[in-house]
Amino acid sequence: MGNSQKGTKSIKQEYLKLIEKKKRKYFKKNEAIIFACDIRRWKEFVLEEILDALKLHPDADWPKALEKACRSWKTVNDNKYRSNIVLFDYLQESKPTSNNSCRMRRTIIKVPDHIDNEQIDFDASSIFDFLNGHFDQSTHFIGNMISIFHHTFYTKNSYILSITPEESYQRLTQLLHISEDLIKETKTFIMIVLQTMIYYYGGLLAKKMQENPSQMYDFILEKIINEEIHSLLLHAYKISRPQDYLNYTLKLQSLENITCSDLQIDPMFCLDKPNNIHFNGYNYAIEKVREIEMVFTPMKKLEIIGNTTDMICGSVDEYWKDMPDIDQNKLVIDGDNFLSIYIYIVIKSGVRDLKGHIWLITQLARSSIQNGAMGYYLTTLEACLIQVETLNS
Amino acid sequence: MDSVKEFKIVTLGEGRVGKTSLTLKFARNEFHDNEISTVQANFIQKDVQLDGGIQVRLNIWDTAGQERFRALAPNYYRQANGAVIAYDITDAGSFNKVKAWVKELQSQADKDISIVIAGNKCDRESERQISAQDAIDYANSINAAHFNSSAKSGKGVNELYTEIARRVYAVHQKNAKANPQLSNSRGGRRVRVTNDEPQKPKNKNCC
């Protein structure tokens, strides 16, 4: 062995010693959090949660399927996900504070080929980015739980999709509580997943959840409420209240030719003047409301409602942009005009399931949004629907 | 460090008494007139500094005042911590509506809701139809505060919002003392992060 090789080896050893010291320091500092719960018994704890769900929903298939899967689950493959969260947190803490992205390391650990060629990205900017990759893996317990829920919940309840609101009249007593039952099951499952996250990943994740509970809730919801679950819940709402749905549909049809002035909107905001052929009116906002049907989670639906509000202002700006002398005080949209414009947009959007979408948001969105801007726009949308039902064509 | 406490404040009052203008005047410093033409003034968020360096955030919800939207008001004031009820001092009818709003809030809103009454358009003192003393007496009788305000001149605007902030914060503090930290009611098996001595597993499976 030459001198240069000996030198390299010695530098490497020094470096490894340094890293080991840093790891020990990190571990000592976070020991209490990491072991806040007995992470060895995670499967046992999760099973207890599933058994509770089984008692709550004895007729549902998914708790039974989860119980079976949990009992037979081999935990060996989960260790890499679970221990890596500590490693990820350690790397996050040891990252240099400089924002110079050119100097940032990108460490990707590539698991050997025989384990499904999985990659774990330690360069994720947040815990959520880091966890994101876990859930798509078949060897990840929670990812697998969610797949089982998707499959069994949909299979058991997909029969309702063939029932039209008209048909549901004849089966009203049977279907009256279907939406409440399905949403209850979904909420139970969401809570199981949140709790499982803590058992599975340990106190470190519990701490992250405590620091940012809403972000974790939204993250889990993104995983659970997929297109199929969304369509089931929405349809369940529709057929459990067929009269509401059919009345609203008829009302939308009867009001399809309504104008801004019919709704007593201030002339400054009546953008639907027929002589203005070059102008789009509130069409962008109307299109935006329609997008609510294409997204599944409450937060995404709320984002659309928020964007619609921005588009209302944008449309008014666009309309008056060539009139620089306009008195800006007249372009303040007060509560009465805002609500009236929203009613106009809601009617013109023709979204028949809007009540169902609002129901989904109110059932599943976290309560902390209620008093903020999102809560205000949601309340306005609810108020619109109440008002639309009382309007005469 | 504690995060800033947020409170929901709803603005009520008959149509055309100047509710939106009041809110807008209060928040005006945050607007940049050159960048915004259309102002959507229905939801405003503004921080207020209270005595002792306490900062609270007000989420101010504007409402429709026209009679045709009257039935929708409960949707807006549910879970509100405070209400600013505005009337026009030159319109006696609008003051009678204040009394109706107060009755409704007392029976249907949160029992702890704080109320501030704003006698707006006080820049038109010569046209006053409601005696300032009568309005103050009424406010005192319902444990509310009363301010003469003008969205035009700005008189009383900051004062009335600071007062509602002070009141909602006081209620919050009182309730927090009455109901200290709720314990975890979800069962012993479930996990809480505490500063207690950890129970170490035998095999540390960690970095």
UniProtKB/TrEMBL annotation, chain A:
GO biological process: early endosome to late endosome transport
Transmembrane segments: none
PROSITE patterns membership: VPS9
VPS9 domain mapped to chain residues: 240-393
A single GO cellular-component term on record: late endosome
GO-annotated molecular function: guanyl-nucleotide exchange factor activity; SNARE binding
InterPro entries for this protein: UPF0507/Ank_repeat_27, VPS9, VPS9_dom_sf
PANTHER family assigned to the protein according to its UniProt record, in alphabetical order: ANKYRIN REPEAT DOMAIN-CONTAINING PROTEIN 27, DOMAIN PROTEIN, PUTATIVE (AFU_ORTHOLOGUE AFUA_1G09870)-RELATED
Protein name: VPS9 domain-containing protein
Provenance organism: Stentor coeruleus
Automatic annotation (TrEMBL), chain B:
Comp. bias intervals (Polar residues): 176-186
SUPFAM superfamilies: P-loop containing nucleoside triphosphate hydrolases
GO MF, one annotated term: GTP binding
Top-level division of the source organism's lineage: Eukaryota
Classification via Gene3D superfamilies: P-loop containing nucleotide triphosphate hydrolases
Alphabetized UniProt keyword annotations: Nucleotide-binding
Signal peptide (from-to): none
Ranges for region Disordered: 175-207
Coiled coil: none
Pfam family, one: Ras
Name of the protein this chain belongs to: Ras-related protein Rab-21
Organism: Stentor coeruleus
Phylogenetic lineage: Eukaryota, Sar, Alveolata, Ciliophora, Postciliodesmatophora
